[in-house]
Design goal:
Length: 192
């Protein structure tokens, strides 16, 4: 007869996500995980098998949550510049608040994607999804006359995705939210 789980999987995954976000994959040991998550080694092994599988589950949760945020925010019918400004303000609040540790997606891109093809594929798929959401919203804004028809919506989508990546790096490495907000303000001018 299988044993009942001794922990709430959603809660443990959320805590693991934050631990990986703060320390990275390589600097988070399995002992760190059991101690910080308050879960026995055997329970983590029984549920996830190894640290790599737990990391993948935490990263997927993070990416899904981010995609949901993008989708909900970009669905707003307000003027495009206002919507994109609000989107980036939410990202800055999340990544630059006191004790924030940057963006797990960007941290993972830097630490693991050059060496882990599965992670690389997951992150490339996520990038395409984010660019697709931007593309759909910019195309709709263009049809409404909010963006000049002379601008390429795909190039705009790629541009804003790259701004997003830069904010992820800047928030982790520099931690200067005022400079990042100034960067977003300049980026938004391309929508004029």
């Amino acid at each position: 007869m299988p044993r009942a789980k001794e922990f709430d999987e959603t809660e443990v995954l959320e805590k693991a996500l934050e631990l990986f976000r703060a320390r990275g994959f390589k600097h988070t040991s399995f002992d760190d995980l059991t101690r910080e998550l308050g879960v026995s080694r055997q329970s983590l092994y029984d549920t996830y098998g190894d640290k790599n599988t737990l990391y993948h589950a935490a990263l997927k949760r993070y990416l899904d949550r981010g995609l949901g945020y993008f989708s909900r925010t970009l669905d707003d019918e307000a003027p495009i510049k206002e919507v994109v400004g609000r989107l980036f303000e939410g990202i800055l609040e999340n990544q630059c608040s006191k004790n924030a540790t940057g963006c797990l997606m960007v941290n993972t891109m830097v630490e693991l994607s050059p060496h882990d093809q599965e992670i690389r594929a997951l992150l490339q798929g996520h990038a395409r999804a984010i660019e697709g959401l931007f593309l759909a919203r910019f195309s709709a804004a263009q049809r409404k006359g909010q963006i000049s028809r002379s601008k390429d919506p795909l190039a705009l989508a790629q541009y804003f995705h790259n701004i997003l990546l830069g904010i992820g790096v800047g928030s982790r490495a520099l931690g200067n939210p005022d400079a990042l907000r100034a960067t977003v303000a300049v980026a938004l001018t391309v929508l004029d």
